[in-house]
């Protein structure tokens, strides 16, 4: 009997865990998907637990009191859900799972009067008996219980000085196309017209690396570097991006800390190095006002540069930002 029930409970745990993993993890591991994989593993664990229970009970002839069995299973389930299961499940889900486990344990223990008697006897004894041992248990339980609940309530209520979470999308999905100075630009396709070699041919991303250390002011600078230089003049001169984004493009311009969010740090791999050049173009043209609603709350001070610069100037300043930080824009495909 006991074997079957333990099996059932572990099966329930396994099944829930597996469905949770499938739900949270998704994706495929090799030829079977993550959910199936988890289910197989959990079934294996369940069978192993039944095997252990059988060894302890029938082979070693150790009788574990019912109450203790219940507690063990409860703790084991808690450990599985809290520690073993990855990614971690939210508290509400944990509460539901543990509720199911608790009900399953009570069902198992109260399935017949004998079993219930075994299960509840220690509790009854602790509450009622007049022996010294029972009294000691009583004192411990009724001191620890209120303390525990009190501590739980206290730690819930005590004010925490944490920043409120602001969930905003820093790099929202760009629109498919934008209108800049009356021209519709297909953002999926457009390339930086100034990323070119000496023959004026498009310089594939990565090929510019040879110019990273070269001097844009040199007489024999390549066409690419000449464009970079003009971009630099816009960054430091015409537009003054450095007041916000900093002389070193590290986001530490003299006005930077007046703003929230602070200006992007281009030297950090989390900004332009992650982005496609056309995404950056979109951000430069439309600035803070141009981001979609999903970025809310987003009071970005980034100006919409289309109001002040020509398209060419904006492409050049972008070229300069990549050259100066020695990052490559992200590309897809070849
Ligand atoms: C008034 C301050 C200010 C100025 C001047 C300014 N920016 Fe910004 N910029 C910001 C702020 C603030 C952000 C971060 C919030 C955002 O992404 O909108 C930002 C973000 C950006 C981003 C997005 C980076 C990313 O990771 O998504 C780019 C690209 C950018 N700026 C380029 C420029 C260029 C080029 C210039 C000059 C032509 C410029 N900025 C001038 C304030 C400024």
What would you say this structure looks like, in words?
With 334 residues, the protein is mostly helical. The chain folds into two domains: 2-128, no CATH class; 177-325. It contains ten helices and four strands. The protein has helices at 2-25, 34-59, 66-84, 91-109, 113-128, 132-157, 223-238, 242-245, 277-286, 311-325, and strands at 28-29, 32-33, 177-180, 183-186. It has a two-stranded antiparallel sheet. A two-stranded antiparallel ribbon has the order 3-4. α3 packs across α5 and α5 (113-128) crosses α6 (132-157). The protein starts with a helix and ends in a 9-residue tail after the last helix. Mean pLDDT is 85; it is low at 25-31. It binds heme C (HEC). Heme C is lined by residues 171, 239-241, 243-245, 259, 261, 263-264, 271-272, 280, 283-284, 288, 300-303, 305, 317.
Strand order of the largest sheet: 1-2
From the alpha carbons, calculate the radius of gyration and give it in angstroms. Answer: 33 Å
Structural class: mainly alpha
**Succession of helices and strands:** HEEHHHHHEEHHHH
The count of domains is 2
Largest sheet: 2 strands, antiparallel
Mean pLDDT: 85
- Give the low-confidence spans: 25-31
Bound small molecules, by name, code or SMILES, are:
heme C
Residues in helices, as a percent range: 40-55%
Q: What is the strand content?
A: under 5%
Principal-axes shape call: elongated
Number of helices: 10
Q: How far apart are the first and last residues' alpha carbons, in Å? A: 63 Å
Give the tally of β-strands. 4
């Amino acid at each position: 009997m006991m074997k079957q029930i333990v099996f059932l409970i572990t099966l329930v745990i396994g099944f829930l865990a597996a469905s949770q993993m499938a739900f949270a993890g998704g994706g495929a591991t090799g030829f079977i998907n993550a959910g199936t994989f988890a289910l197989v593993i959990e079934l294996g664990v369940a069978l192993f637990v039944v095997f252990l229970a059988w060894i302890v009970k029938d082979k070693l002839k150790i009788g574990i009191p019912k109450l203790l069995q219940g507690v063990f299973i409860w703790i084991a389930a808690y450990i599985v859900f809290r520690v073993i299961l990855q990614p971690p499940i939210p508290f509400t889900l944990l509460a539901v799972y543990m509720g199911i486990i608790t009900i399953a344990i009570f069902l198992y223990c109260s399935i017949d009067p004998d079993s219930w008697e075994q299960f509840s006897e220690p509790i009854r004894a602790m509450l009622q008996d007049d022996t010294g041992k029972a009294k000691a248990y009583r004192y411990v339980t009724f001191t620890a219980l209120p303390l525990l609940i009190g501590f739980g309530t206290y730690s819930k209520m005590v004010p925490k000085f944490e920043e409120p979470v602001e969930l905003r999308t820093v790099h929202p999905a760009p629109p498919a196309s934008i209108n800049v100075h009356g021209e519709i630009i297909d953002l999926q396709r457009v390339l930086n017209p100034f990323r070119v070699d000496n023959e004026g041919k498009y310089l594939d991303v990565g090929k510019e690396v040879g110019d990273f250390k070269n001097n844009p002011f040199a007489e024999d600078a390549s066409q690419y570097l000449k464009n970079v230089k003009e971009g630099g003049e816009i960054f430091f001169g015409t537009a003054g991006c450095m007041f916000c984004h900093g002389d070193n493009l590290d986001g530490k311009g003299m006005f930077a800390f007046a703003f929230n969010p602070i200006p992007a740090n281009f030297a950090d791999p989390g900004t332009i190095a992650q982005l496609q050049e056309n995404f950056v173009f979109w951000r430069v043209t439309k600035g803070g006002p141009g981001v979609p609603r999903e970025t809310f709350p987003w009071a970005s001070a980034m100006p919409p540069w289309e109001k002040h610069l020509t398209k060419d100037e904006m492409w050049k300043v972008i070229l300069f930002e990549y050259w100066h930080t020695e990052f490559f824009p992200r590309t897809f495909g070849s």
